[in-house]
Amino acid sequence: MQQKERIKKHILLKHHKNTKFRVENNTHASRHILNKYHNDTIFRNEIKTRSKIDILNKYHNNSDFRTQYKARSKQQVSKKYKSDPTIRLKTIERAMNWYHKNNTLMRQSSRRLYKQRRRILKKYTVRQSHKCADKHRNLHMNNLNRFRQIIREGPDYICISCRLALFRNQEHIQSYFNYSSTIEKKWICKLCSDKIKKRQMPSRAIVNKLKVCEVPSELKKLNNLEKHLIALRLPFMKIVNLTSGKVSSRFAQKGTKGPLHCVPSDVQDTVTTLPRAVDKSMMVRLQLKRRLKYKAVWEEQLINPNNVRDALFILTKMHPAYKKLLAQSLAGLKM
Hints:
Elements: H1 2-17, H2 19-39, H3 41-61, H4 63-83, H5 85-101, H6 105-150, E1 157-158, E2 165-166, E3 171-173, E4 187-189, H7 190-197, H8 217-220, H9 224-230, E5 233-241, E6 254-264, H10 267-273, E7 284-288, E8 299-303, H11 305-318, H12 327-331
Antiparallel strand pairs: 1-2, 3-4, 5-6, 7-8
Helix pairs in contact: 1-2, 2-3, 3-4, 4-5, 9-11
């Protein structure tokens, strides 16, 4: 034992004093340790665990070493991420897998906030759609109520200028005419009122040669089919009531439905084909069709050829469109 201690002391003194020996001893020891590290697995694992423990202790205890280690590791990671595409793809894939698999509080809070935003947006859009629907519904109901208020009374207000029967909202109570003899109210339409205020003649006034003449008795006594026989054009249309409910069909507003056909009629051919009237009371059964080749009958009625003749004579004197009828065609109907 004394011999070993004496040898150790001698080697230590030589190691401290002789530099050449110290260098040779260090190189020999490092080579021996490297060879043992590469060949002996147990020794290598012990060195690794010891070094990891030393680094962890130094990392937790020494703040300067900790900051330097963080900065150095960040630089190395960013450099590898930018230069190596495989590492970059692996990092992205690892982050995605971690987000999908790891159910941490951060992921739960982010998912909760996302669902909350979606719920608020959905509630806002539904509320806005309901508001728009209510607004349009209220607007429609207001317009409908206003229209019903307007047509509550029929077109019973007659303008004193043009004699048109209009609704109440289309008329004014005249205030610039003095009718001391009458107590009843006088009505005037807006168009005539504006023209009179400008001291102009209304274009549709009765005094502007637009007075409706009285219908002659020869035309009054004609029935529907006789009127159709002497008409220059026959309109075919379907007329329906626009309003329903308490208003009767007589006073309801009318409107057309479906196609409208206007068929020209040759009155001269009609006059020549009518049978000669033997007596004033002679009646003929007649059928009216849209076209002769059609089987369906539009109207069927008894007519008096004598009444048709008298009405045509009156129309040739009054209406310019009937003056082209030949005199002999009309004379053929005479008794």
